[in-house]
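Q: Hand in one record:
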Amino acid sequence: MNDFKIFDLENHQTKDVKDSHVNGELTIIWRDWDKIIKNPQMVYVNTVNPGEIKGPHMHKNRTSYFYCIDGDMVVVIRNKDGNYHEIETNSTESKLVSISNGIAAAIINPSKSISKILVLADIAWKPNDNEMINTKFDDYNWKKWID
């Protein structure tokens, strides 16, 4: 399916320099030689308040990649066939969600705290570039995620 993809990211334990105990983890989002993202031109953090929806909208030219770095997120995608897909993830999972240009999507924070999402894009946003189109998912049940 080319409308969207989910990548399981590479994780590595990190170790203390003194006694080599595990002190955390490193998750690789992008490397210039990986085949996941072709040279991102923009990287930013998107916050979503508790119980809020960002979108739905689509980008005419830009492919976007989403990685939840704090909290929870649900990405609702409407593919070219009009079918909805729901991707649930959170900051404890190493999943990168890619949404191709021309595909409408929304990000939902179903939790009671702010969610932070790292976003990478293959084309940088510019003010007034008219690259984004707001859409409506009139037949989608938003209430299943938020009250």
Notes: The chain has a mean pLDDT of 93. Residues 57 and 135 are 5 Å apart (CA to CA). The chain has one domain: 4-125.
